[in-house]
Amino acid sequence: MEIILFTLIGLAVGSFLNVVILRVPQNQSISFPPSHCPKCKNRLKFYHNVPIISWVMLGGKCAYCKEKISLQYPLVEFFTAIIFLVTFLKSDNMLQAGIYSALFSALFALSMIDLRYKAVPDLISFPALFISFFARDFLDSFTDALLFAGGFTLLRMVVSWIIKKEAMGEADIIIAAIIGATLGVHLGLSAIYLGALIAIPAFLIVGKRGFHLPFIPFLTLGLFITWLFDKQILMLLERIYG
Ligand SMILES: [Zn+2]
Fold this sequence. Notes:
The chain is an all-alpha fold. Helix content is about 70%, strand content about 0%. The radius of gyration is 19 Å and the shape is globular.
């Protein structure tokens, strides 16, 4: 029963994330004006706004003017619900499930905003960093966040100097700090390595066409996968490095 409730909360949070993804990068209020069709400006009724179901029932079109509604809306709702479901299954207790769901939801929103707008609003990244301090023991998380932020800053300076171009964004440093806080040193480094590994084929495919690919979605994916399979990855590391 708890698991169904938790997943449904995830659906509702996904609905909220859609508003955040659309409005925060444009510095619009997330509460006003209420949900409306971007084309005909008609206000949506509550039954036009039920996660996933409304989009399917309306055939992906506005109820008033039949303007197409982006598939992004039900997809964000779906994936947020999945994040909540998986996090619930992985967590030891409700408090942990809550902290990690909030953290991964914020990172998911940041990834979508980075993909769409090539922007990373502090309004989301700093609260996410704050939540990550509670991912493990506060002092451990805080120390590793500082360590990763420092390490990434240094790495950024070196890489920028080598390629004579600004490498990575400042926001990547905050995400690195979040990864350090959440996973600690060993798993944290694995997460960044995994994120880079997943990014390589994507960069090879779209990078050639001059498309600038953001890094945050890959770091987030690396973090989420490493967190999910922490025991297996630690075992693998132990086997490699003794
Ligand atoms: Zn409309």
